[in-house]
Amino acid sequence: MQNAIFDIIILNGRPASGKSEVIDYLKKTPLDERIQRFHIGQMDEIDDFPILWAWFEDDAILEKVLKKPRLQSTKDGLFLHEYQWHLLIERISMDYSKRLRDINDYHEEHTALIEFSRGTEHGGYIDAYPHLSDDILKKAAIFYIDVSYNESLRKNKKRFNPDRPDSILEHGLPDWKLERLYGKVDWEEFKGSDPEFINIKGHKVPYVVLENEADITTARDENLGNALEELFGKLWKIKNR
Question: What's the number of domains the chain is made of?
């Protein structure tokens, strides 16, 4: 199995671009089929959203229950410091290192799925990626889901469930915050002109892009499955040349 699966897939894209839907589709695909079609093994998700949401919940408890100052965020849910965005990436690297420490031959069966979004307002991918460890970058392949800001806004509104704001599949941002944080992204600048690799800290990291403006992810049907099979197959070939 070790030679049949990706070690690490880094999944990027604007909020509501389809990242969580892709993960959900992969999780619901039987393991043998998932390995054969997508080269994805036992899935181990490392996502920065639960971490940042826990910070917001901690601040709500501090302010409303304990009557103490907020530590991480403002009342309207912005970070107090820009470096907190980089802290999240450093935390991803730390969590991954614990996997390697605690699980023997981790990548014989596991594909780590690392998920995050970054906009230029808080440093973009250019500032975020250097905070990933060399252990991650030397094994990683990037799967980017490309949608416009308007499509991100549409799907962000559609998926938001106010009763489950902490849900991976149903969380959302207010319109003003989505525009401020993700109105502009630096993906094109970050990836550069090479159609297959991005140079990050001396590592040549392969990548592919899913164009999702037409939204093939929401239905999670075989249109998505076929697109994923094609792109993961392409990424596998680039990675293993």
Answer: 1
